[in-house]
Records
---
Amino acid sequence: MDIIIGVGGTGAKVVEAAVQLATIGIGPTELRVGFVDQDKSNGNLNRAQYALSNYIEARSAWRGPEGSHKLHGSEDCPILRTNIETIDGGSGLWVPDERSGSTLSSIFGAMQEDNYLFDALFETGKVEKDEEQDMPLDEGYRGRPHLGAAAISARANSGSGFWDAITEAIKSVGSGSRVNIMIAGSVFGGTGAAGFPTLARIIRDRLREEKISSNVHIGGVLMLPYFGFPDPDEDENQNVARANEQLMQSRGALRHYENMLSSQHIFDQLYLIGWSPFFVMDYHQPGAGDQRNPALLPEMLAATAVHKFFTAPAAPDAEGVQQINVSARANERALSWPDIPAMGTNGSREFHEKFGQFLRFAAAFKYWKAHLDDDSSRKAVHKQAWYKAQGLDQLDWQNNSPSENITRLDLVVDDFIRWCAAMEAYARKDANFTFNLWNVMGMVKGVDFKRPNQDAEVAISLSDDDYAQFFESVVSKHGTSDDPMPDSAELADGLTEDSFEDEHDGMGSMIAALYTYSSVKEV
């Protein structure tokens, strides 16, 4: 069993990135997802949950047990291959203290003789930015990881479906199964910095309690500072995480992790991912729904680390090895496909091929689905060779229409395009940085840097000219000497000459054909 837990807003963004990779066919066969955040209205968390919900519904439509329009297997069309569920069968979210207006004081209750120690550990005062004991936690820990660590540790044994599910997963190793638990969080901020090591230690403690010493592997993706905000104005809420404090906090946290990891076996594999220079956000929100930061490239790199952890052979348990991996690129001022960390034996080419094929498929899907959206559109093309070759003339469009399946797929395609657009826009925002991975900006109505918490709007469909252009230019070649990618005319030929009716059901044949002939290589 593979489990990923996103801690805090940045951890949720890593989970979102892992879901996006699963959309294109990069992920384990089965995946359980959980979130930890005191701020349950956090915008980053909400967007990750939205992407997860869209994925689960799309996969159910195309790969579930019911319905007539299905994708089968994963050889020719691996999209939506991973069966993803929440860890507890519900929202997957654990809020350490769900009471409204919760504070550290209310979590711990009356201190009595320990009150002096409580005062020594946590600030209290009349100035808002100094208050810790009675700071409302509804919007998270606001860059105070020591508050989060105390709250999470105090509430971990309070009973919840989240922790029950983790305990059951741990116990399942008794039947010989292997459990991989990946925890993603940031070294900066509040919730992630607090929960990242705390959750791992709590799980290790439970392993000892259950007397389990093998077949449970704990990995960590620790996000180093990679973006920053301007400080709030004097008339704004001052009790927020500040960009100029991130590096100091991170340096101190990393020293703590170094001491902790040198004395305790906590992580089997740890991945450190950052970015220099920082991506700059043009706004600041302390928490809640407006803390909805755009997708950024380090989160994609983090998702490749998640996949590598789930698929790479684990070191023998008896060795107690803690592997620490750090991301890097050849040129600080550029990013190309060979810079993406290898996830398998084929280096970064496998990633490029699947990522690029799905981007080209997204352009093709946006174009071709417009021919199928309604009766009049279908009537205009129903005599064409490709329409008959894909068996579309045999579908019962009135009583067994694939429209719902197409809509579900359209939602995850749009999520993926928006995700790519945000990463691309913020990479290209720096005029001195060369971004050489993809170009999806023509498929969206722009990214507003003044409102980074607003997602870009994806084009509903593509014209003939736009489709031909985007299909051939949406993804860069892996290497400059690589052969040209097949063009849209070759895809049209493939739709006319080939059919996947024997491998897939109903509209699934058309989708598999579109995907297959969107390959970055000759088919």
---
Amino acid sequence: MPFIFRHRNTSAKKGRLAGVLIGASLVLASCSSGSSSSTAATTASTAAPAATIKNGGQIIVGLPAAPEALDPATEATYYGRIVFANMCLGLYGISSAGLPTPVLASAAPVISDGGLTYTITLRSGVKFNDGTPLNAAAVVTSLTRDQTLPTSARASALKDIVSVTATGTDTVQLKLASPDSALTTILAGRSGIVVSPTALAKEGANFGQQPVCVGPFMFSSRPSLDQINLVKSPYFYDASKVHAASLDFTVITDPSTCYSNLLSGAINVAACLAPNDVALLKSNSAYQTQTVITNAYAGLDINVGNANGYNKPSAAPNNPFAQHPSLMKAFELSISRKTINNVVFSGINQPGCTPLAPSSPYHTSIGCTHRNIAEAKAIIAATGVSTPIPVTLMEPTGTLNTQEGEVIASEAAQAGFNVTVQSTEFTTALAAAESGNYEMFAIGWSGRVDPDQNITPFYAPGSALNYTGVQDPTLQSLLVQGRTATTVSARKAVYAQVEKRLASDLGIIYLYHEAFQLATSAKLQGVSFTPDGIIHFANAGFTA
């Protein structure tokens, strides 16, 4: 089913996943999950029988929304993460076990000096997709750019790094201002992607239009916002294990069209289906399906301090929530997470009220509020604001997203809110959120293994993913404690306090944790779906 990840991460900007999820159904048509190779995080744990896979062929992936410009420093959508996973590898990635694992690095970082020094050694003999060598100097260039580019969506995640130095041809040393337990996981995301310095020098600000990295596939063209074409890279260090000749991504916003295209063979992989279509595939013996609850979440961002843009000083916009913060609690009490999940998403998601999924070892159950119209009305009455209170809810375009907005509007009306659903093209919605030109935004986050990256980017002052403009010193102090604590038990105790603090009307109403649904058939093998919700095609190919 279509879902919009904010990948403010990111997503962003927000994958938020960004990249931004509204429901999550990834249906891998004609595929069998699994394959193994030295590309580590880009493969799953179960090996596909390589002898049955033929070389050549075109893999076509249907996505429900388009990535932004393909620059790892600035891109902020979940769908961008999927594209990058196949053409722009990073120092580390996420394994099939959900843990950081070396990719372009040859091993885990060596941590010394009380957690203030990270030494990373690179895999040898690696080339960018322009044929130039990967070396320590390239890593320094990429990380420095991530930290200093004015439009970077990575800067807040890397803020603890005070210096990046090439100590050898293949060795990089990072110096930190304070210990950061999340850093290796951060480097397993877009912050760890290394881009070609040669291409960067050539393209400058237009790098996202002609990106060059290390990957099994390389950028070929983007004839429109909704179409991205990749081809097999001759420079990839594991090129012999890459079977497909090309990998194309096409945007299909309508779930029924996505389903029809899947059945007709117009696409081989669908990430744009509705839950009822997945149910049909479950009853079709030609497909196999599975559902996984991930670290992703969906929620409602409310603009309470972003009047002039995320990179400007916090200022309250002219809307009821900014003027009367208690109305956020009233709005939360006016809607039912369970109803939204059941009516719109056929019950596949897991209702929740914090950014940490129950599957996370850092999650603590705080007890979610339930729909209570009487209490919501009492809060509204106490503010003195006249009803009905007008609210503009920005929903990314898409059938299910619109349905979600309509359910929210219908329920909230009973408490005294008059919600107008504003259907907005995804990248346009992200731009509006960043600039502060919105009131309420339905957006999701594709989730990270480390809890810090599911929270800090969305609340840190000046972060490109902080659409709400919230600045809360108490929360920031807790987040610092969470990053510097070194044991799971110590960090969990801190994040229990964080989750309670986030329930205190801090700009985001969390709704549910996304479920990813996979359906596979026997025509396409070697597709890997890792626990971070990313689809990898490095070893995928057709058997017929």
---
Amino acid sequence: MAAQDIVDQRLELIEQRLGETERAQRRIDWSVWSVRLAVVGTFALLMLAVLLVPYTGLTPAVVGGNALLIACFAAMYLFYVLRFRPAFLQDGRKQILFGASLLICVAGAQLARNSELGLLRFEWFVPLMLFGIVYAVVFDQRFAMDATLFAAVAVTLVALRAERFDPLPVLVLLVGSLTAVLFTNNLRSRYKLAMVGLAGGAAQSALITALYLAGAWHAANWIELASWIGVSLARGMVLGVLATFVLPVLERLFNITTDLRLIELLEREHPLLQMMQERAPGTYQHTRNVANFTKRAVEAIGGNGLLAEVGVMFHDLGKMVRPEYFTENEPESKLLHDRLSPMMSAMIIISHVSDGILIARKHKLPSAIEDFITGHHGTSTVKYFYYKAKQQAKEGETILESQFRYPGPKPQTKEAAISAIADHVEATARSRFAGGLQHPDDLRNMVRETITAKLLDGQFDECDITRQELAKVEDSLVKSLAAMYHHRVKYLEDPDAKRRAEAVAMREKYRQEQAQRREKILTQ
């Protein structure tokens, strides 16, 4: 068979495997959708129960009208998500969080409507600013703005039922919440959330003052106005402080990894990373290189670069248990493995995955990082020791490849899949191109071989990465590797320095010859 025929067959197999993966992604999984529909139905019933409070004067028309109102609101939100944020449908935990927060806001509005306050003041009962901050941290700023508007619409629908409806408190509440969301930009620490809340309170105070001067906000005198301003500032700061306590609870309750949590892991030198620097310095350096490669490649396809970077920084934690058995930490590790059977060596290498999971869970790292620990090898084979075992096998002895495979699972996300590619190409390049590149295309060929091999091995079957994205990943990794292993111009030597060195050498040679002559004369 010609070499071109073999290449064509491999390309055909890759196209087939990627096509099957993409068709599986488009296929409707009714087992998943049945659960989602059940959750939506439960949410609708709870919302209906809240809207019907205090359950007096109920008629079929009232119940049907409220049910229709909920259906219209849910349809509007569904069309919004399908049109602008289709990826959010895949994360049911965040959808439940949004639904629960919406229920709390509507319940607070109902409580305010049925309270004995002379003038309806929703800002006392509806924690919209708090949830706006939560949306910004858990989702992103753009969705937080949209979600806050959705919640404000729901609150307004409840407020319209009040005997005396005053839209100004709802407007003030909305402006303060949106301002707080805007001030979450470039948030690097959860302790700054108090300042975010204070900014929202300041926006509310400014709006109240403007409305008072315009004659729209009713206050008996300047003292009452000052009290409104002071209360708005204090309430904003309190809600910001409350967010610092609520977010960790929500992260644990809904098993959500926020960008704020990832930033804290990355910026504050985590004790595990410090331990890795001490126990496995070679692994730590390898990890930093792979994290840099992965982040650039993930951002090239529009993925979560921060999650990728942090996940890779912790993906090799298990190597700290037996660092001396890994070449990057101990160049003479081959001598240790030579004393062991290939099967035992493979077990030690493979165990760094399970050891990493145990360490991550012990130190309460986010669960999203576990996908990088298990997925960067997936179910691939420890080929070096597998081939070594086959070489040492006795006649008639069968060596099973399954005994030399990692336990998996395979990468579940695009970020984890890209980390698997970057991890392999960084290690391969360090081994293959340590002496420099022989040809500019060597890097691209190596990266392409890695991606092809993982595709043929089915390592990307459980994630939604596409062919176009893999092409972008290849380009990004080639650029990153080229920055490390680029051709270097040979520096020219100073010709005068060369002549001076030759003169010194000749002078030294002449002195040696003269010394030999004198010694010869003296000995005669």
---
Amino acid sequence: MRPEPDPNERTRGLPSTPRAARTPELHPIDAVDRVEASLADELAPCSYWLREGRTYGVRCEGATSLEVGADRLSPAWPGLFSWTVRGSVGRATVRGVFEDGQRSGPLDVELVARRFDGPRAQLRFVRAIVESIEREALADPFRDRHVEWRASVDYDSRKPPAPRALLDALSRDGLALAAALDAVFAQPARDARTVSARVRLATDAGDVELSELVSADGAWDQDARGVATSKLRGRAPREAWGSTLEWTADCAENRLLRQRLLAVLDASSSRSFDGALAESSAAVRASVRSTIDAVRRSLEHEPLANAHGAVLDGERARAACQRRDGYRAALRWIDDVYARSTLRWPTVQRAASLRDAATLYEVYCFFALARAIAAALGTSVRFNAAPSSSALARGATATFGDDRTLLYNSDVAAYSGSLRPDFALVRGGAVELVFDAKMRVRDGHERATDEAARVDLDKMHAYRDALGVRAAVCVFPGERSMLYRTDGTRSADVRLASLVRGKSEGIAALALCPERAL
């Protein structure tokens, strides 16, 4: 009979996680790595990270199962679970599930792929992938099915907008922001507020002034025979407490605009922005820097310089800004940048929020392969949204000048049923090539530059056999490509152009990754 785990055993790793409704509590019992302080904000709410392929113990006393994303784990012992991290990377939420259906409080951890040294390297990869997808989103590839969009008023302006989106806006229409700021300075917003102060009284004050002073204070005794009247003997104090109006620029409109402009400056000082700006023409660089300087100067002078108060009611502040031309135009310009900073495709939005590197890489590969195929064929590419959608989703396509089409996550008929490769290149109704985007590396290899995993190459054999295609290609983020020809030879010189034009047959591992990702 197996012994019960010792309840007094010293646990290491994460502290206990608060439960939503009742004890017991959820916490790992194996040592784990803590997220370093410099990454805490970007990886929030995760405080710890776990390595893909490793097994961790999780204790949740009283729980009948453990919920890890969409998966359910059964206990190895009562309240004790064994969890091997596999299948996904990025943010994961773990909850204990009890017999009555209640769930424990969430435990959020960052799952790091085995190919990366740690969360910093994986985060750098995710950033590069997201930047590449943002460039595609800014170009609005599904413009024929475009749906009007605007940033909502509740976006988190404490975080800067995406550097690429900001650079695109500054390059296209930076002068509009500068003109809006000029209008703000021409007609600045100010609030009148009542302040208490000691007011000097002249002994020969007129009737109007004295009447206002008396009526403002109900404690005045108007009885001429009163004690105070007789003792003062006609004399008046030199000063008295009164109220006066004061005009201030520290108002809701200026606070809101200052907050937004500070976020713009924050984004413009990032390395991503500098790198993208360096790739622009000299004229664009000069124009962008001129607009950024105008933003910086506006924050150094009234009415924005001293608007340091908190924005307590964002909607009311925005409503006040809408009544002033300069403020309205400036906020509309910044709202547009934030809207373009938000990836418009729901699949990508969710993947980006969870730092799901695998899903983001798949989306990146769709656009990168489409661009590369168009270049190989010497033609243009047209992106088409999925049916009944205005976004990137299953069923989206990329069509080229001839009769070729690249399918995204579409079912392809096989002799035993149907399969769904990530991408399929179709010509005249027949599938010629299939592609699968994979994040794994070969067993025993730990660096991102290594070759594709053997299990993924085996899957390419299955695709090629079942679908009868000319070639099946595993696309992975690395450097060591390899083509395995049907005649038994192999070559490290894998060219997508030769695969597309029908000069190569077999299976292949194709390294594909944006710059600065690894």
